[in-house]
Amino acid sequence: MDIIVAENLKKLREKHNLTQEALALEWGVPELAIYKWEAGRLPVEYKMLQKIADFYDVTVETFFVDESAHKPTASDKVSFNCRICGGDLVYDFASTSCRCANCGNKWAIGELYPKYSHVIATINKAGRILNSKTVLASADEAKLLYKQAINECSRIQDAISSDLIKICDDGVAEAEKLETYCRGKYFFDNRSYKSALKELVKVSGYKDADDMIRRCKGEK
Fold first, then answer.
1. What is the pLDDT at residue 31?
2. Would you give the DSSP letter of residue 70?
3. What is the rounded CA–CA span in Å between residue 75 and residue 115?
4. Which own/partner pairs from 31-40 qualify as long-range (CB within 8 Å, at least 24 positions apart)?
5. Contact, 187 vs 196, CB < 8 A?
6. Distance of CA 82 to CAs 65, 91, 105, 188, Å?
7. At 89, which helix (H) or strand (E)?
8. What pLDDT score was predicted for residue 74?
9. 187 and 143 in contact (C-beta within 8 Å)?
10. What is the pLDDT of residue 2?
C-alpha cells in the first residue's frame, strides 16, 4: 500500500481525535483493518477510500498528497500509474478522465492532478457553449476559452498538457467551423445565395449545410 496514504489516514484520525476502535465501529470494519491501513500493511479499496473521504469531508486526492514533499511546479512530471494499485492509466482526454487498466478505477484528471483543474474547467465550459447554441457569439466565446486553455497548458510541459492542447486545437477548429456556418446561414436567411454558397461549401457535411448548399445552387 502507498505509505503516503497510510500516513495521511493516521494524520486525519489523530487530527479529529478519534481512535481506531471508534472508526471501526463507524465504518463497520475490523479494528485490525484500520491498524493495518495506517501501518501500510493492507491496501484500502477505492470505494472504502471514498467512504473515508466523505466521512472527513475531503477529496480522495487528499490521501495521496505528500505534505513533506516539495510543492508541485509547472515542470513536474506526472505519474502514469494508478495510485490505488500501481497499474497503468488509460487516458480519455475528450472526457478529461482516466481509467486504471488493472483495477478499473476511474479518475477525473482534474482530481488526480489538481494543476489541471482550472484548464479542464475552461475546456468543459467551452465545449458546453459550443454545443448550446448555433450562433456566432457562442462560436467566438468558445474559441476564446479554448485559446485561454491552450495558453495555460503551454506553461505545463508534460504529456497530459500536450494532449489537452490537442483537444483545444480541435475545439478551436470546431468553433471556426461554426463561425463559417453561421455566416453562411446568415447570408442564406437573407437570400444572398451566392455569398451563402461561398461560405457553406467550406463546411460541407456540417449540420444542415449540405441542404442549404443544394438550395443555394437551385436559386442561382
1. 92
2. P
3. 11
4. 34/9, 37/1, 37/5, 37/6, 37/9, 38/6, 38/9, 38/10, 38/13, 39/6, 40/1, 40/2, 40/3, 40/5, 40/6, 40/7
5. yes
6. 14, 11, 8, 53
7. strand 89-92
8. 38
9. no
10. 60
At residue 149, what is the residue type?
A
Q: What is the pTM for the complete model shown?
A: 0.54
- If one counts every other C-beta atom within 10 angstroms of the C-beta of residue 159, the result is 11
Q: Is 40 left (phi over 0), alpha (psi -120 to 50) or beta?
A: left
Helix (H) or strand (E) run with residue 108 in it = strand 106-108
Give CA separation, 100 vs 60, 83, 108, 150, 152, in Å. 16, 9, 12, 27, 27
| Mean pLDDT in order along the chain per 10 residues (220 residues) | 79 91 92 90 82 86 63 44 76 72 78 76 85 82 87 80 86 92 92 92 92 86
User: Which amino acid makes up residue 83?
Assistant: R
pLDDT of residue 98: 78
pLDDT of 5 reads 81
Exposed/middle/buried for residue 160 (C-beta within 10 Å: 0-12, 13-18, 19+): buried
The bridge status of strand 89-92 relative to strand 97-100 is antiparallel
3-state DSSP call for residue 120? Answer: helix
pLDDT at 149: 87
What are the structural domains of the chain? 3-64 (1.10.260.40)
* Distance separating alpha carbons of residues 63 and 9, to the nearest angstrom: 7
In the sheet with 89-92, reading across from the earlier edge strand, the strands are: 89-92, 97-100, 106-108
